[in-house]
Structure prediction request, 421 residues.
Amino acid sequence: MLQALIIAFTIYALIKVYVSVMQIGYIVTERQKTPVLMSSEKYIEAGNYAVAKEKLALTGHIIEYLLFVWWSIIGFGLLYNTIISYGFNSSMLISILFLIGFFALDYIVSLPLLIYQTFVIDKKYGFTKTTIKLFVTDQIKSIAMFLTIGLGVMALLIWIISSFEAWWFYGFIVVISLVLLINFAYPTIIAPMFNKFTPLEDLELKQKIEKLMDNSGMKANGLFVMDASKRDGKLNAYFGGLGKSKRVVLFDTLIEKLNHNELLAVLGHELGHFKHGDIWKNIALMSILFFGIFFIIGHLPNEIFTELKATPIAGVIIAFLSLIAPLIIFIWMPIVSLFSRHNEYNADKYGSSVGGGEYLVSALLKLVGENKSFPKSHPLYIFFYYSHPPILERLKKLGYKNDTDTKMQTDGIFTFIGESN
Prediction:
């Protein structure tokens, strides 16, 4: 059984590597062609940035596969027997220690990739403003959250696995409940641990946003500006939270680069997701995914843990679930992404109707330029990874034509003539 899983994971890894290689080759070719949506210099730079990120992702795919093979053949047995050798008798304690060891090693292995992305790639292309002190602080906060909230949830799952025959079903219920809780608590509890949020001071913009929300029937617990610029220069905005915890959050970088009309068009897009209930659709799709993961793990024969040279105690089961979850997620995500791309088109349509199509187009073009987003991707890469439609397709749906007779090029970004500020 373990051999079959290793073969399945090998196929999964090969597909990911193949898609990454095809994406790199595609961008290398396309970046030499006539630029679209941005100047030639920025087009090449965006292509170089995309290639650099994908090469790092390719390295990550290879490391993920090697780590899976190591855990399957050596790691589980080595970690389990090491913990047992200290004479611990409590199944709960052994499980907790096993999970700490399992996730600690994964974190240590992935950390160099994160450091390279932050301080080499993002720095080279002018994104990161993260200092070493801020990076270390963020990591400490993340570790602290894992050792408190994360281990608390795992302790609950360990108890459920140890107490119920149908543990996989109750475990699924716990995880979905946790997803809902995180969505509810994120804007008011979790996000402020990493960023500073201040009320929107631009009264004119605030009134316009509130009017837009009132017309859409959305209630939010405040309009806030996030100090995203302390980490990087990327632009974004979002509605966070569920129920009364909902917040409108604008990155300070977004406010700096977009005018009021463009900001309202972007928020109109986000309101489209609210109007269409997209967050609940996504939660439903993710619920199906988590149900499948827990069902599969809950019905694996105990012999597989014998092959892993470990006893099927709760901690080992949870770690193995985490180990093979990426394979299951990879199979399911193209389906989720297909629905997501459909939802994005509808949100664009709504944002265009309430905020003006020309302003949404103008905002999207600025987002492409400022975020150095290469506008083209290989079809296979789009199929597996794109939760949003390709930018060229989105713009086409909004009526944009890359026509220099009707557009002007400013700073390498095409905008509509007569755009108001």
